[in-house]
Amino acid sequence: DVKVTQSSRYLVKRTGEKVFLECVQDMDHENMFWYRQDPGLGLRLIYFSYDVKMKEKGDIPEGYSVSREKKERFSLILESASTNQTSMYLCASSIPLQPQHFGDGTRLSIL
Amino acid sequence: LAKTTQPISMDSYEGQEVNITCSHNNIATNDYITWYQQFPSQGPRFIIQGYKTKVTNEVASLFIPADRKSSTLSLPRVSLSDTAVYYCLVGPDSGGSNYKLTFGKGTLLTVNP
Fold it and tell me: Which is nearest to B37 in space by CA: B96, B83, B93, B6?
């Protein structure tokens, strides 16, 4: 079974802090994704990566950056956290032509 | 990008067949249609994927008409544990630099006793 692990289930940070969300998958998947999920808005793609050191912007990349130094790990970075980035963050991975597998999410609160 | 439209919510009763329709008028030739299920405090879980006509697995069926501008997820004989949000996803699913996905806003299915 594919396992996508997000480093924290719950995280509380302060405005202006630099925040790192980590995601690791154990199935050697090429593709990895970061989404955020907000009530009434569904899932929105922030960034995705189709290979090590490769990244593409999703629909809402503003205020975020990503890092993929190793195939199994995809990090989402909030350079200077703001209250409007309070959300549920979901990581996913996949191989081409196969569905995405999701982690259980990180609920991030920015105070 | 193919935008998707789904009903915001649906109600049903245990034992009924439930059909959830997703519209995707701008679907591209190389796009697949994928449905996910999500329970509270969990990540979405893959249900079924198709390209055209009909696909069936042990959980659901997916009906896609010839023009592919819509699709219908069919859940046979639902139970209370099928209460969840169902997402329709349209995308090329092939990786590469043009790989972008569109999630619908999801349909909250409530199954009543």
Answer: B83
